[in-house]
C-alpha cells in the first residue's frame, strides 16, 4: 500500500486596510468604530480579492482556526454571511505537530484553482502552515489594529459585519469568539453569523 505523501508547508501573509463600508438607506456611520479589510496570501497568491465586497477574509474565524481545532468560514461576504458570497461549506482547521491544516471541501476547488492554489481533478484541498509562522503573521495584523485603537480611541473591527452592528474593542471581539467556540453544543459549531440582517448585499456570488 503506497504511503501518503507529506503535504508541503505553504507560506502565509496578511495585510489590512481601513475601508468605508456602504451604508443602506437610513443607516448612520458608526463614529466609534472603524472597519479593516483583511487580505490573505498563500504562497504569495491572494486568497481573496481585496477590492471585492463578495470575497473577504473573516479575521475572527482565522483567529479561531489558529488556536483551536474548529470548522470555520475563512472566506465570507463583508455582510458576515458566507453563503452570500457562495461559500456554503465549512473549512476544517486542525493543529498538530507544529502545523496548522486547513482542509477545504471539494466545493472550494474551483475557487482555489482560479487562484493557483489547486490543480488536477476536483477534490478536497489541504493547505498546511507552520503554526508559529502563521501565528506571528496574524499577530502583526492584530497589533496594527490595537495600535489604531490606542492612538485614535476608536474601536477596530474586521470588515465582516453590518455598520449598524455594535463594535466591541478588538480584544473583546476575540474573547467573545473564543467563548462562542468553547460553549458550542456537542457536535454543533455555534455560528457567529446568526442575526446578521438578511439582504444586505445584492451582488452575485463569487462562485
Distance between the termini: 37 Å
Fraction of residues in H or I helices: 10-25%
Beta strand count: 11
Uncertain runs: 185-200, 202-207
Calculate the mean pLDDT score and round it: 80
Contiguous helical run count? 4
Instruction: List the strand order in the largest sheet.
Output: 1-10-9-8-6
Number of domain modules: 1
Overall radius of gyration: 17 Å
> Biggest β-sheet: count, sense, barrel?
5 strands, mixed
| Structural class by secondary-structure content | alpha+beta
- Global outline: globular
The SSE order reads EEEEEHEEEEHEHEH
Binned strand content: 15-25%
Structural notes for this entry:
This protein has one domain. A hairpin with a 2-residue loop joins strand 8 and strand 9. 24% of the residues lie in helices and 25% in strands. The chain has 207 residues and is α+β, with helices and mostly antiparallel strands. The strands form 3 sheets. A 5-stranded mixed beta sheet has the order 1-10-9-8-6. Strands 2, 3, 4 and 11 form a 4-stranded mixed beta sheet that branches. It has a two-stranded antiparallel ribbon with strand order 5-7. 32% of the residues are buried. The chain contains 4 helices and 11 strands.
Tell me briefly what this model is.
The protein is of the alpha+beta class and 207 residues long. The chain has helices at residues 59-67, 109-114, 131-152, 170-182; strands at 9-10, 12-19, 33-42, 45-46, 56-57, 70-72, 75-76, 91-96, 99-104, 125-130, 155-158.
